[in-house]
Amino acid sequence: MSNHEQHDSAHKPVQRKEMSRRQFLSYTLGGTTAFMMGGAVLPMVRFAVDPLLVKKTGSNFVKVVEESKITDEPQEFKFKIHQVDGWYESDPELSAWISKDANNNIFALSPVCKHLGCTIAWNAKGKNEYDCPCHDARYTKDGKNLAVAPKPLDEYEVKVEDGFVYVGPVRPNTRLG
Ligand code: FES
């Protein structure tokens, strides 16, 4: 080793790990890009899951008819429900067959036949039964299945308040024990 080389190595400055210009730029630009992407993407994520975060409020009951109009004889009443399915909102029209039982309790049956889903009607054949026009299923006033259909008619939850009948969600028939 020459004297010159010895001198060089003795006085070589300690190498510090300095950030190169390229690294500095890539960190800075990368950080800024990540920040901006976060600002753009987070609202999208929030929007995507928004319906899941929204608290369901309000009642499921819909005002349908004055209590005074309900008789022993089933009558069909139409009503609209407000439906929110993710981002899609709609107001489909439904109907219920509403009547009073022997104890003066008001109840409402779903018009959907439990055979294949056609729409039933009360006393269509003059027999004081619900009849289905599709395959002749028959049901009693309480919704008990008499022919063809495998199950009784479903029932709406009902409440009476301030002289009005409110109809709620559909549930399996509770009238037949
Ligand atoms: S759908 Fe009602 S009898 Fe078949």
Automatic annotation (TrEMBL):
<dbReference type="GO" id="GO:0046872">
    <property type="term" value="F:metal ion binding"/>
</dbReference>
<keyword id="KW-0472">Membrane</keyword>
<feature type="domain" description="Rieske">
    <location>
        <begin position="98"/>
        <end position="167"/>
    </location>
</feature>
<dbReference type="GO" id="GO:0016705">
    <property type="term" value="F:oxidoreductase activity, acting on paired donors, with incorporation or reduction of molecular oxygen"/>
</dbReference>
<keyword id="KW-0001">2Fe-2S</keyword>
<dbReference type="InterPro" id="IPR036922">
    <property type="entry name" value="Rieske_2Fe-2S_sf"/>
</dbReference>
<dbReference type="Pfam" id="PF00355">
    <property type="entry name" value="Rieske"/>
</dbReference>
<keyword id="KW-0408">Iron</keyword>
<dbReference type="GO" id="GO:0051537">
    <property type="term" value="F:2 iron, 2 sulfur cluster binding"/>
</dbReference>
<dbReference type="InterPro" id="IPR006311">
    <property type="entry name" value="TAT_signal"/>
</dbReference>
<comment type="function">
    <text>Component of the menaquinol:cytochrome c reductase complex. The Rieske protein is a high potential 2Fe-2S protein.</text>
</comment>
<dbReference type="GO" id="GO:0004497">
    <property type="term" value="F:monooxygenase activity"/>
</dbReference>
<keyword id="KW-0812">Transmembrane</keyword>
<keyword id="KW-1015">Disulfide bond</keyword>
<keyword id="KW-0411">Iron-sulfur</keyword>
<keyword id="KW-1133">Transmembrane helix</keyword>
<keyword id="KW-0560">Oxidoreductase</keyword>
<keyword id="KW-0479">Metal-binding</keyword>
<keyword id="KW-0813">Transport</keyword>
<protein>
    <recommendedName>
        <fullName>Menaquinol:cytochrome c reductase iron-sulfur subunit</fullName>
    </recommendedName>
</protein>
<comment type="similarity">
    <text>Belongs to the Rieske iron-sulfur protein family.</text>
</comment>
<dbReference type="InterPro" id="IPR017941">
    <property type="entry name" value="Rieske_2Fe-2S"/>
</dbReference>
<keyword id="KW-0249">Electron transport</keyword>
<feature type="transmembrane region" description="Helical">
    <location>
        <begin position="24"/>
        <end position="45"/>
    </location>
</feature>
<dbReference type="InterPro" id="IPR014349">
    <property type="entry name" value="Rieske_Fe-S_prot"/>
</dbReference>
<comment type="subunit">
    <text>The main subunits of the menaquinol:cytochrome c complex are a Rieske-type iron-sulfur protein (QcrA), a cytochrome b (QcrB) and a cytochrome c (QcrC).</text>
</comment>
